[in-house]
Queue: 2 jobs
Job 1
Amino acid sequence: MITFTIPSFTDIRNAHLRISSEIHRTPVLRSASINDLSGVQAFFKCENFQKVGAFKYRGAVNAVLSLSDIEANRGVATHSSGNHAAALALAAKKRGIKCYVAMPSTAPKTKAAAVRYYGAEITFCEPNLQSREDTLNMIIRRTGATFIHPFDNFNVICGQGTAAREFLEEVPDLEILLVPVGGGGLLSGSAIAARAISPDIQVFGCEPANADDACRSFHSGTLFPSVNPNTIADGLLTSLSELTFAIVRKNVQDILTVPESSILSAMRLVWERMKIIIEPSSAVPVAVMMENREKFAGKKMGIILSGGNCDLSNLPFREA
Amino acid sequence: MITFTIPSFTDIRNAHLRISSEIHRTPVLRSASINDLSGVQAFFKCENFQKVGAFKYRGAVNAVLSLSDIEANRGVATHSSGNHAAALALAAKKRGIKCYVAMPSTAPKTKAAAVRYYGAEITFCEPNLQSREDTLNMIIRRTGATFIHPFDNFNVICGQGTAAREFLEEVPDLEILLVPVGGGGLLSGSAIAARAISPDIQVFGCEPANADDACRSFHSGTLFPSVNPNTIADGLLTSLSELTFAIVRKNVQDILTVPESSILSAMRLVWERMKIIIEPSSAVPVAVMMENREKFAGKKMGIILSGGNCDLSNLPFREA
């Protein structure tokens, strides 16, 4: 039997106290033209402006600051080729401790460069789960570092929940909250915080149709893995864990999916109308809003723009 | 003999009163990593978030609101393929009057689409100065519309000066102000406002080396036209007018130029580090800051990010 501890809103508040001097309190932006086009009142919480360019820094810094000095001195480790690795690297650097990252040899050079920029030590592995876990375990045996999972981690989820808390402090009467879902760390933390602050708010997970494992899990009640996901939203490839699935089932209204073409249009819409850079994963909830105009007509909607890390040399825009 | 009236700071304050309910008070952003890289304390006034995506809306709306009802009823006209045309179109639409634009037939479709989106009537002309002026004059004879020049216009300059005023209200102790210069409307208004508020501030015009007519005019004391400018900063192709040249000579410390490669690097820097979209013209003062680290070391520097309108299908980024 698997047991785990589900964070409460008090845990998220404590995380917020712990990290608030370390993170940016990111702005909430609006767009008159997107409101015109969508027929809703949309508010955007800009975690693309967070340190390392993504909400992931909240969870990583909360996990790092929650370590005892003895644990911290042995460092932290993770396997990731994305924003979590960069976030953990910076959080470790700020505490003055080591960070070890197991990264597939096929990861884009820009990702490895970002992690190295923040001072982490990278060990490359084969691009498969077995090699990644073997490499990580070897690092941990060698160093005694604490493994900080990207989302299946109590302190990480508590940190991620602080964005929704700030959001509802600034816009208390949000009726709907749209959050992208991959592993479910951001969605879990957001849903716990939002429903504690505003019991009537409806929280929706937003997922690419081409990586709809969370949607299928939610509707069937059985945790499905993500099988051969193929989406531009490369932050949303992972599956829920038992922990995040339990939180999502209890606190989330529904999981809505959108096709790739809608994600791309939504990304372009935000770039063109708001003049801010969001990564494809952040465009997923925007696409959900644009594809469900009737469902959400006239509502006060919050969208968490989860990050802004894109490879500018390889953008997906073609002739409109 | 040419005579003209040079705006005073009182004129800019009056413009600000006139337009403040019509414009966005744009945010001032900072970037820790750009400060680290440049060795200065940089503040960015984000006119890329202004209506129509550029500071041009300030001048256009001030010009439109300064018309008498009789003048306004006959509409406004301009020749431009850029941000001024879109700005004038929206300003006219908001006042409920007509806007006529003479635009070269070679202008990008996206530019014509933007102007049409705001309700202006476009007349296409040949892509040369004679055809443009003939077409504009024909429109004015036919309609009685008032010509609103993109920068050689008292009310336009007063409107553009309101951005620097907001900037210094928010960051009163700026020591340096960097402003891009094409026709000199923004630089003129900014310099008048900044020096009235902070007499010791140094205002620099920032220009592509490949379109350095303002720099040569400034240093020689004779107004040079822009001859075959060839720069990615397509908002800075035009030359100063007698009016803007007179203001710039009196109020600006110097005009600094930067090569194309620096403009492109600066644009990429802002996109990657700040996650905001700026057009190439806005990257010119950022490039000036990065290329003059010793000159500006440790200073509190203000940069006006003039606009954010880019063709996303045709971006200049290549493998880094």
Job 2
Amino acid sequence: MGKYVIDATEGRAKAATFETVHGTIHTPVFMNVGTVAAIKGAVSSVDLHSVGTQVELCNTYHLHVRPGDDVVYKMGGLRPFMCWDGPVLTDSGGFQVFSLGELRKIKEEGVYFHSHVDGRKIFMGPEESMQIQSHLASTIAMAFDECPSSRAERRYVEDSVKRTERWLVRSKAEMDRLNSLPETLNPDQMLFGINQGACFDDIRIDNADYISTLDLDGYALGGLAVGETHEEMYHILDVTVPHLPQNKPVYLMGVGTPANILEGIERGVDFFDCVYPSRNGRHGHVYTKHGKLNLLNAKFELDESPIEEGCGCPACQHFSRAYIRHLLKAKEMLGMRLCVLHNLYFYNRMVADARQAILNNNFSEYKKKMLEGFDNNM
Amino acid sequence: MGKYVIDATEGRAKAATFETVHGTIHTPVFMNVGTVAAIKGAVSSVDLHSVGTQVELCNTYHLHVRPGDDVVYKMGGLRPFMCWDGPVLTDSGGFQVFSLGELRKIKEEGVYFHSHVDGRKIFMGPEESMQIQSHLASTIAMAFDECPSSRAERRYVEDSVKRTERWLVRSKAEMDRLNSLPETLNPDQMLFGINQGACFDDIRIDNADYISTLDLDGYALGGLAVGETHEEMYHILDVTVPHLPQNKPVYLMGVGTPANILEGIERGVDFFDCVYPSRNGRHGHVYTKHGKLNLLNAKFELDESPIEEGCGCPACQHFSRAYIRHLLKAKEMLGMRLCVLHNLYFYNRMVADARQAILNNNFSEYKKKMLEGFDNNM
């Protein structure tokens, strides 16, 4: 079980320290997404040390399909496999399975679906998800949940959330069982529960109250940033986070833009993850305090400055906008790698600065200044 | 002009030191190919320090087309543009132009051809090639030559070599003129001449004798490893290298396999370059002292050992064959990057070891031992 200590608060914003068996996490924290045990854009776990990463996130469904969680287990778990010495969080596989749409069938026991790689039929329920995550030996496992659309009908969401609650109880029982097995790789594997309820305040709140009674290691908000407006998402955070335990970390899953993250921190969120920095980087879109730049733009052809003046990332230490633009135009992988490294550094640095601001009791000022600098796309 | 000092010889094999305005080169040396000012496989010039690179090679034709040598000139030349602090060699553009086949027309003044990027008509002769290379500001420029097929008819080769000789005189005059201009970025830019003659001993020898009378900074053998057998290539080296100046470096262009390189060193070659290590790396084919491995092979699925035991490359320092195989199967760019880094290290290390062996007067033993270890594909 992780030890969670709040170092400082400012309004509902928190700076905390979360001790795990794989290292200490200082929150707020942005987890860097390494879907199949690698950050897309030719970035290795070793490279992550140079961009200030604290936690790497990997996707259970993808790793179950390839190389197989049995392979990762035999290699000693994800951390030695991908050579990352810090904490790892694995999702439950649910989100990917539910995005398969017509390809899957939901039952009380779990979900039947077809692999996106070879089409073979797979079943995943709470027990299977925990078993796979136990094989992957992450620091933090996520409970198996359904993620209903933010536009789903009330009746559907009510039924779905009730089933997810039953799945949470099964997830916890199975994780407890797995952690006590002699052959488990990480007997201290933690489990976070997931709050759902689409955009219905009362369903979100009832669910938050219920899952808080289970003694989990942390609590996540799922099913956000999947179609609702930013304002709806902030509203759900406003009404739900106060109903989660104050002595446990809060994780807002799959969110989001730099502005989303600052708004989330203000509303008491500790953990974030998002594919934006790596996905945008691969398309030559890079983040700066003054807005997002498209490096493919002709105006950067002769621009000798780094992506962002004063940035300490491995790209900005050495290379100019003009050079990176040339690489992107020539479709050289190196261009993508440099943009991804910069973007991860930008996100990691932004939340580290937010933490420092909370410790200094000037987060509200920091957030205001950052948001003023961002362009509309941020 | 570079200062070339032979440190030791063993038979015709040489270990030499070549002083350039951009740093000292210890030969034999394998130059790492960064076609468009970047090593394919997401490897930057900064990364090259970790794989023992001495010289980076860039392709004049590709850079002329994109981003344009005028852009590179305005950015201060290739070295600051790609952030490489060591020596750079640029080819003349001739080889790429001549591989365009039906798309080009050869005249006394030079070659008319169409860009592979946008189809626009381009003319390149000796003067244009030197002007572009002067813009790129490489340490060593190559003379503009025609590279006839190793199977071309005698009459064609005779005419071609005579024209290449006239182009060499024009290349030298133009490089001298450019180096004396106040706006030149590298007034010490060196020029290597290129020996041609397909597989005709007498044409090769006559050409070598002639170009040796021009006071060039080094001498290359071109038109090899383009269709003839390895034995034919070694024979051409045997008969031609003794006719090149012994007080200048010798460069075997575009060669080759590890075995080819050891045979070249034995025959007095100083400089090599080849796309094999990066191209093979991108396909998951990696070099070891015991032969080439295809990491996609199922037998590596659970292989916890590095690509090569005891290897000091950035991939072998951290990652297993099993992990890299997984990345390659999942088409993660990181897999390609790690294989390319390993292969460049392997080549760079092999020639560095060959140099040390020559200094120790046991190159012949070193070569024998290495060749015994290689499988047929090496």
